[in-house]
Amino acid sequence: MNYESSIKGRGAQLNIQNRFIELTHEMRNDFLEYCEKEGEVSQCNKTKYIDVYPKTIVNKVSSPDVGMAYSMNPYQGCEHGCIYCYARNSHEFWGYSAGLDFERMILVKKEAPKLLESLLKKKSWKAKTIVMSGNTDCYQPAEKYYEITRECLKVFLKYKHPVGIITKNALILRDLDILKQLAKDNLIAVNISITSLSEKTRRLLEPRTATTIKRLDAVKILSNNNIPVNVMLAPIIPSINSHEILLLAKAVAEAGALNIVHTIVRLNGAIGDIFTDWIKKTLPDKADKVLNQIADCHGGRLNESRFGIRMRGEGQIAKQIHDTMRLAKKKYFKDRAMPKLNDGIHENNKTQQLKLF
């Protein structure tokens, strides 16, 4: 099966079995043949939005190599459909598949702004940067309709609380008005993920994300408005985008980014089978080479869970990637750095009341 005959607009090409559910669902060939003959659709490819009502919205991050203390996710599941996404595994906790369900069954947390405000008002809460999209993208297509992320940014601005954003969607520019106000008090840092300058590669890896050109434009517009931008060249996938590191670094530096970081792809849990199925269907000629090189970065395995190593990799291929990144930073990002966000003014803005003394 080639890309033209794959499931349009989706990354995953199957719904892999949820490891927490005993019952299995099988798409039989005779059923698919019947649907073909009768002109019927074997499965609905439309995205479904499902309201959920969590009791809290901010999560403490205990992983020592993630680089954030707290995260929040207005949505679970992500319509962007990035085939390599580590967040796919988390969809199994909700009773869905990490495959197509992750892209088509989007859980929406409409109460997120209220839950966030309740937390920021607590006397016991001490300001520390909360990162939106620690798991799934807060500017995925659902945000166009629900505007939960925008409402949360208004809460951060109201209480003068530092916030970070991770996204690969140019929709962030819709909220430029709020971001500029946050930036005046050094309360915002934006991390934009750009994995390739090739639109063909981008469409294969991340079918429903913003184009690379739009993301570079977002970096430029944000930077021109004094909003600090870090670009995540992540993940680097050997023999798919590993040759683009220097070109990507040059492009984002010219757009005004203050820093770049990278991770090496790792295919934990269900993602290994999902990625393997995908690459054998979309890039069959390169599949074995890519899979073997990914495994070479992780001690002969596709998955990697060791803190400090899991996102950096090891071995000769990983070393080549790290060396190229060091060269890119030295060449294009000398004397640039992301600022430390301001966590010192939130305390005086908790109650929203004027103080006498």
Number of helices: 12
Terminus-to-terminus distance: 71 Å
Strand content: 5-15%
Order of helices and strands: HEEEEHEHEHHEHEHHEHEHHH
Overall domain count: 1
The percent range for helix content is 25-40%
* CATH architecture field: Alpha-Beta Barrel
Per DSSP E runs of 2 or more residues, the count of β-strands stands at: 10
Structural class call reads alpha/beta
CATH class descriptor? Alpha Beta
> What is the approximate shape?
globular
Radius of gyration equals 21 Å
Strand order of the largest sheet: 2-3-6-7-8-9-10
Main sheet record: 7 strands, mixed
Fourth CATH level, the homologous superfamily: Aldolase class I
The overall pLDDT, averaged over residues, is: 92
CATH topology: TIM Barrel
**Which blocks of ≥5 consecutive residues have pLDDT under 50?**
1-5
Keywords: Iron, Iron-sulfur, Metal-binding
Organism: Winogradskyella alexanderae
Domain Radical SAM core: 64-301
Protein name: PA0069 family radical SAM protein
Please render the helix and strand layout as text.
Layout lengths: L28 H10 L9 E4 L6 E3 L9 E3 L2 E2 L23 H5 E4 L3 H9 L9 E3 L9 H5 L1 H11 L4 E5 L8 H9 L3 E6 L5 H7 L6 H13 L4 E8 L8 H11 L3 E6 L6 H12 L4 H10 L19 H17 L25
Parallel strand pairs: 1-5, 3-6, 6-7, 7-8, 8-9, 9-10
Antiparallel strand pairs: 2-3, 4-5
Describe the structure.
The protein has helices at 29-38, 100-104, 112-120, 142-146, 148-158, 176-184, 199-205, 212-224, 245-255, 271-282, 287-296, 316-332; strands spanning 48-51, 58-60, 70-72, 75-76, 105-108, 130-132, 163-167, 188-193, 229-236, 259-264. The chain is 33% helix and 12% strand. The protein has a single domain (39-349), classed as Alpha-Beta Barrel (TIM Barrel), CATH 3.20.20. The protein is α/β, with parallel strands linked by helices and 357 residues long. It has twelve helices and ten strands. Strand 7, helix 6 and strand 8 (188-193) form a beta-alpha-beta unit. It has a seven-stranded mixed β-sheet with strand order 2-3-6-7-8-9-10. A three-stranded mixed β-sheet has the order 1-5-4. Helix 8 packs parallel to helix 9 (245-255). The termini are far apart. Keywords: Iron, Iron-sulfur, Metal-binding. InterPro entries: Elp3/MiaA/NifB-like_rSAM, MJ0683-like, rSAM, rSAM_sf. It comes from Winogradskyella alexanderae.
